[in-house]
Amino acid sequence: MIETLTYEFPANEGVRQRAHVGVVASGNCEILLEPAVDGRSAIVVRTSVSGFGGTWQAVLARFFARNPVAVQIEINDFGATPAVVSLRLEQALESAR
Amino acid sequence: MNQAWDTRRRRKEERLARIAGLVRDRRFEARDAVTVLQELIEPGDRLCLEGNNQKQADFLSRALASVDPARVHDLHLLISVIGRPEHIALFERGIASQVDFSYSGPQSLRLAQQVADGRVRVGAIHTYLELFARYFVDLTPDISLIAADEADADGNLYTGPNTEETPTIAEATAFRDGIVIAQVNRVVDRCTRVDIPGDWVDLVVVADKPYEIEPLFTRDPELIGDVQILMAMLVVRGIYERHRVQSLNHGIGFDTAAIELILPTYGERLGLRGEVCTHWVLNPHPTLIPAIESGWVRSVHCYGGELGMERYVAARPDVFFTGRDGSLRSNRAFCQAAGLYATDLFIGSTLQIDRDANSSTATLGRIAGFGGAPNLGSDPRGRRHSSTAWLEMTSSDEEIRRGRKIVVQLVETFQESGIPTFVERLDAVELGRSAGFPIAPVMIYGDDVTHVVTEEGIAYLYRARDIDERRAALAAIAGVTKIGLGADERRTQALRQAGIVAFPEDLGVRRNEANRTLLAARSVRDLVEWSGGLYDPPKRFRSW
What we know:
A: alpha+beta; 2 helices; B: globular
C-alpha cells in the first residue's frame, strides 16, 4: 500500500535549478526538487511505509525552518529513516542552489 | 590444631581418580565425554564454559547438556557469551541454575524467558574484563571447559589466531586446583605454537568436529549508506582530526566500518595519515585493510581472530601481534586492558540513548548484555600517562589535573522501521526491574560519554558546563525524536557559537560529498583486491 502525504510551507528564498537525488531502493528514497513559482513550498510524499505522517511533518518542518526555499518537492520513499530523508533533502538543495 | 590447607587439591585428586580408567596420557575419548563430565562435576560446582563471542567449546557444551540432571545439577555457570542453544538447555534441564556472564546476543530472548520462569538466577551482567577479574577473586572455577586447535601429548595447546580468553580461563582454574578440560580439533606430536602450557591442562578430548567459530566482525561495504558516510566524515573531522586521536577502539558495526573505509580517501585528503588513528585495539576487521595498506596503521592488537583474515594478518607481522608460527596471537583479557588504559578513544553504537546520554542495547523481553562496551566506553580513573587527545578533554589549568578518555556514541536519530534512538527512558530500567536486577542494565553511563554523533551533528558533551547545557546539546542533535523536538532553536545556535554543538557545515563537512564514492572499498571483493588476494572471505560474504 502506497500512502500519499502532502505538505505546504511558507518560503521566500529561490533556487536556481532542479535537482534529483537518491535512489529507488529499500531503506532509501528518491527526491525531485524544482523551483516553485508562487512563493510557497509544496511537498508530495509517496511512501511504502504508512503511519509516519507526524515524523514526515517534523522532518519537513525542520528542513524548511532552516531553509525557507520556494520549491516543489516529490519524494518517493521506500522506508528511509529520517536521517536518510534529511540528508537527501539537504543534498537536493545543495545541488539546486 | 591440625587444619587442612589443601582441601581443593585433594578434592581435585579424588575427582580425577574417579575417571582414571577412562583416561590415558590426559586423553579421553569423545564417546566417553558425557560419562567423564558426569563423574567429575559435582552439584553446585562453579563451571566455566568457553563460549566467547567467537570460538565455542561446543563439543563440550553439547556433552554437558546431555549429562543426567539427577547427578549433575544446580551448577553455577560462568560464561562470557551465552550464544548457543545448548547453553539455554543447561537451564531448561536444571543442570545449571545460576549464571554470571557478559553477553547473550543470539540467546537474549530465551535467556529472559528462563529468568522469568525462575529456572536460572542471573548473578550479574558483566563486561568481559570484569568477569575475567572475578575468576581470580570470588568466581574461581572448579571446572573449566575450553577449546583449542591442537594438543600435544604433554597437554600443550595451540589456539591459532583464536586464543581469545582461553589462557585466562585456564590460568584462573589451574592455579587454584580446578580441573581444566580442553576439546581440541586434533592431537599432534608437536604443537604449532604453545598458547597454553600443558601444565595448566588436566584433560584433553578430540572433538567430533572442529570448534564452532563465527565471523562476527565482518561488515560488507556494499551495505554502507550515505548517512553512515556522513557521520563518518563528522567523526574524522570533528573528533579524530580535532583532538588528534592516535590510539583507539572501534566497536562492531556499519557506522564504524564506514570510518575505517574513508580514512584512505577523506582522511588522506585532510592530510591525517600518520597523524591520527595509528594504534588500534580491535579484531582484524576486513574493512581496516585499505587503511592498513595505505600506511595509516602502525599496530593492531586483537581480542580474537576473524574468519578469513588469517593469511592477511600472517603476512603483516609489523602491524599485528603474531607468533613464531606466523599466525595471529589474540588475547581478549589483554586487549580489553589495552582498550581500557592505553587508548584515547572508544567509539560505538547503541540502540537507545536517554537525555543524559546513558545508553543501552537492552530492550524489553531480552537480556542481552554488552560484552566489552562498558569497559571500553569508560574513563579509566587510574590512567597516569598523558596524550594530546586525553588532555584535550579537560579545560582545567590547575597545577594538578587529569585528562579523560574520549567516549563517543555514534547513532542515527532513528533506526530502521521508525524506532527512535533518543528516548525519555531506557527500556533497561523496566527490564532490570522486571528481571529483579539490583541495577538497570546500562551499557555506557552518560557521565562517561564525551561526544554523541548523529546525522545532525556532534554534541561535545564534555564541554557543557552543567547538566542543563548537556541536555540541550544532546537535544540539538537528536533530530525529530521527541527529545530533539524539545530543542530550542535559539539555544542551539548559541551552543554552536560556543563550540558545544557542531553541525556538518560548522565542520566544513559537505553533505553532497557523503556518498559511496568516498569508500576506499565498496564491496567485499574490493577488500580482497586491497589485500592482494590474502583476505579469504567466508562463503556467505562472497557474491561473485
